[in-house]
Amino acid sequence: MEKIPVFAPAIGVDTLKHVTDALHVGWLGMGAITKEFEDLIAAYLGLQGRYVVATNTGTSAFHLSLRAAGVGPGDEVITPSFNYVADHQAIRMCGAEPVLCDVRYDNLGIDVEKAQALIGPRTKAIDPLHFAGIPCDMDGVYELAAKHGLRVLEDATHAFGTRYKGRKLGSFGDVTWFSFDPVKIVTSVDGGCVVTGSEEELHRIQRMRLLGVDKDTTERYKNRRAWDYDVVSEGYRYHLTNIMASIGVSQLKRVDEFINSRQRVCRTYSHAFRSIDGLCVPASDFTDVSPFIYSLRVLDGRREALIGHMQARNIDVGIHFLPVHEHTAFRACRRGDLSVTQKVAGEVLTLPLHSNMKPEFIERVIEGVTSFFHR
Q1: How far are the Cα atoms of 211, 221, 248, 355 from residue 218, in angstroms, in the given order?
Q2: Per the domain annotation, does 63 fall within a domain?
Q3: Per residue in 64-106, pLDDT tens?
Q4: 216-266 pLDDT, tens per residue?
Q5: Confidence (pLDDT) at 188
Q6: Radius of gyration, CA atoms only, the chain
Q7: In a domain? residue 4
Q8: In what order do the strands lie in the sheet with 348-351?
Q9: Domain final position from 228, 252, 276
Q10: DSSP assignment, residue 352?
């Protein structure tokens, strides 16, 4: 019986053609296709007066967001413990410290009331995650930030295409960053981007993206290099190549197809599991959600037994996430009450979710879960 993976990239002939065409251009580094990718992202998100900078990873995008926002040594950034550790490492890369906040039980987004209790004299920014593509309490986050003069750096790595009150994430607010890594809905194999509403920050991020060089972005967008340049700021090697961007371009042209197919799977899962005692399904009908993962909560301490049951049926499952405050390197971080994080960390279970998922895979996943509870 074929194994069902948690993730499966949607790579077809269209992607192969885009990569081949990019290789034939002969300019393999950051170039005109990188710019095309950025322009397509901006068009898809419906940006007006906002700007996109593509990067080689989502973590790079967040690091540049932090530095553009002025986060540096001695500062603190409030962020959920219930997230992948990339955010917390990027904060440390700035010389700052993550302050670990709890999440709400309903949407697993940052708990704004608990975040307020963590604000101190060194707090510089808030980094909320839109878990599984479901928006967090955006109104609450931005009201809190405005009250205390904080930057908001939205982790939308799970939520490319998600809408909040009719507007796509990234099309409003402060700074939003996305990931296009191998398992995301849109992949460039590895990649990310920053969206900012500040033209000054746009140019700062573009310079920092490529070693602090002042003219390289403009020239490389034309598939050429500047041989007369200055280095004007700190910088990193965070640029996205034409080849990786070509994969992203091919994916963006199909993103609505991918999202719609995933929404259908999520609705099918929720319909099948909603009435099962011992399971908690996501609190969403997925109408405006671009679902990166489908995450159940398995109650009453039965998660490990369900994992074994699924593995016996050749179905992979995942756990998003192990809380960061339990990792050795972050145990000493300042934190608030993390009781919800502690609870959900023992319950969450990620089921397979693919773009254009095979119908037989969907049926097997549903049978696997329901047979565990109905035996």
Answers
A1: 14, 6, 21, 35
A2: yes
A3: 999 999 999 999 999 999 999 999 999 999 999 999 999 999 9
A4: 798 999 999 989 999 999 999 999 999 999 999 999 999 999 999 999 999
A5: 98
A6: 21
A7: no
A8: 279-280, 294-298, 348-351
A9: 252
A10: P
Range of the domain at 297: 255-373
Q: Residues of 189-218 as b/e, b for ≥16 C-beta within 10 angstroms?
A: bbbbbbbbbbeebbbbbbbbbbbbbbebbe
CATH code, domain with 265: 3.90.1150.10
- Same domain (yes/no): 157, 56: yes
Q: And the tokens for 249?
A: 């371009």
Q: Taking 90 as the threshold, does the pLDDT of residue 374 lie above it?
A: no
- Token duo for residue 166: 């009719």
Looking at the structure of the chain, the number of domains it has is 2
Q: Are 231 and 358 within one domain?
A: no
Q: What is the spatial order of strands in the sheet that 76-80 belongs to?
A: 51-55, 192-196, 175-179, 151-155, 123-126, 76-80, 97-101
How buried is residue 229: exposed, middle or buried, by Cβ count under 10 Å (0-12/13-18/19+)?
Answer: middle
Residues 159-181: tens digit of each pLDDT? 999 999 999 999 999 999 999 99
Examine the domain organization and report whether 276 and 202 are in the same domain: no
Q: Which residues are CB-neighbours of 64 under 8 A, at least 6 positions away?
A: 53, 55, 194, 205, 208, 209, 236, 238
SS (H, E, C) 112-169: HHHHHHHCCCCEEEECCECHHHCCCCHHHHHHHHHHHCCEEEEECCCCCCCEECCEEC
116 in Cβ contact with 126 (< 8 Å): no
* CATH code where residue 18 lies: 3.40.640.10
pLDDT of residue 327: 98
- Number of C-beta neighbours around residue 359 at 10 A: 9
- State whether 220 and 163 are in the same domain: yes
Q: What's the whole-number mean pLDDT along residues 333-342?
A: 98
Q: Which distant-in-sequence residues (6+ apart) come within 8 Å of 138 by Cβ?
A: 128, 164, 173
Quick one: pLDDT at residue 187? 98
Note whether residue 3 is domain-resident: no
Q: Which residue has the tokens 């799970």?
A: 158
| Upstream peptide bond of 321 is cis (omega within 30 degrees of 0) | yes
